[in-house]
Please model this.
Amino acid sequence: MSEARGTRSGAARRAAPWLVLVAAAAALPLLSGDPTITYLATTAGIYVLVGTGLNLMFGYTGQVSLGQGALVAVGAYTTGILMADHDWTFWAAAPVAVLVAVGAGTLMALPAFRLSSWYIALVTLGAAMAARSLLVEFEGLTGGWSGLIGIPRPVLGPWELGERGVFWLVLAVNVVLFAMVRTTVDSRLGRGMMAVRDAPEMARSVGVAPARMKLFAFACGGATAGLGGALLAVHHGLVTPDDFTLDFSILFLLVVIIGGAARLVGPIIGTLLFFALPELLTGLAEWRGLIYGAALLVLMVYAPQGIAGEWERLRARRRASGTPSDAYGTSDVSDASGTDVPVEVGPPRGEPLGVELVGVRKSFGGVHALQGVDLTIEPGTVHAIVGPNGSGKTTLLNVISRLLRQDGGRVLLGTEDVSRATAERLARHGVARVFQTPRLLGASSLRDNVLLGAYARERTGGTATVLRLPWARRERAELTEEADRLLADLGLAERADEEAAALPHGEQRLLEVARALMTRPRLLLMDEPAAGLTPRELESLGRLIRAIRDAGTTVVLVEHHIELVASVADVVTVLDRGRLVTSGSPQDALGDARVVEVYLGAPA
Ligand SMILES: Nc1ncnc2c1ncn2[C@@H]1O[C@H](COP(=O)(O)OP(=O)(O)OP(=O)(O)O)[C@@H](O)[C@H]1O
Model:
């Protein structure tokens, strides 16, 4: 009871500054009495709205867009045409504007599936340029250079919203959107977005489909831009092509970058600094270009994470300097992970999966990485794959996990032929992966990194998550408890709230294992998990691998550390130049004369 009260009062304490901020913003038009301030504040609110959508796309999902201005234009013109020419109400026109902008945003996203982010930037820049020409060309619909005039204000019951009313509407929309985005980025969806941004292959290995996630992000960006456009239309009462210049489109990206990408307050800070402040300092108008350019240069050199990112970094540093130094050393963690703490591994999602490879071939240009490999991996065993550098071990894991498609041959999981399946689908069937170099959400907490492992297991849908419905909260609480238990088992409990990027190498590897275990895997593929570990960490890794097998998971272990292999493997397969040399018990395989030759380069 008292704990619940404590949690509630903690939430109230966290919400208090926001409530004060919203109350102060809401009181602004009443306190200032200057219509110009209200007008500017409304425009700033619309920019924050569009910036928040772009932050989801760019900050959280890594999809650059210089074309948000074009989508705002789509929303503004759709609203203008429906309201001024067809007498629609704002409440009917705005949803249509949002839908049309989502459609346009999704179209813009199509190249994103094939291109890297900087090419997408060029595509979206092209869209921004084309949009302005289209607005002029389709004169009959858009009014050409003169644009659309006489767009009425929204009417709410008996009241037509005035300047202040539109401001309060924009503020309310921002508050709702902020709450929705806050919940989204702190959920399965948000973790999936960040995985696509930080490590697309890792994202696929936990069940995230990058193409769908990018589409979702572009749709969110389109929706907020469309809504921003609808509000801009009724705010100005007219729309012209001159409102949607290239500068206008680029402004939103700058607002996000300067404020702090992937920080919720980023677009607010960016808009205040980049739009509101210069508008208020009108005396500096002629120097504005120079001030913008210089500020951008200085910020990108000294605060590449934007103002909000820099603020967080300083706060973290202050917290660290106030903490006794040994609490941040590696000893307590490796002590915890290296002692006899029994590692409890939860049961897999189903029966352990066996693997069968039949004549698998894979080449990269002239390099034949796999040359007709036949291999059976029995369910419920630890099966090690060893061989010299470049012998094809990682390629083999990539083919099994479907991150790579083989050129020839077949791959079976259990009895199912998965030769054409995707990595995301396999992840949903219980295949997990630990990578050769840890692939983590560097800026997220350890707990969030582990929770990402539950991506394919979470049952709560997007709507229930965003609305924080009771079953969504319940599932979240259960998974968080499970993630914390895993972190505690691996000796990382004290660091659960720290950023993953701040962890030493050994703990980053353990964190990857924790994420993989969170998937409750039926088949776990581990690529050189021992690389760079201390002897103590190696010992605990060995115990962990045995515990994973004993819980009922098949483990495929690619490893150079022969002592670890000898101590944990049930079967060892040796590869050399893409061919299978031998396969058998550790003693037989590692003692085989051909294997000694492979490793030493001469006959035994
Ligand atoms: N994406 C790629 N593009 C081109 N060549 C590749 C690619 N991936 C692997 N190769 C080549 O395929 C061969 C096998 O590589 P692979 O990474 O599977 O070997 P490995 O046994 O895992 O090596 P290591 O022990 O060094 O990790 C190597 O010659 C490598 O250079």
Observations:
- The domain at 355-442+504-600 is CATH 3.40.50.300 (Rossmann fold).
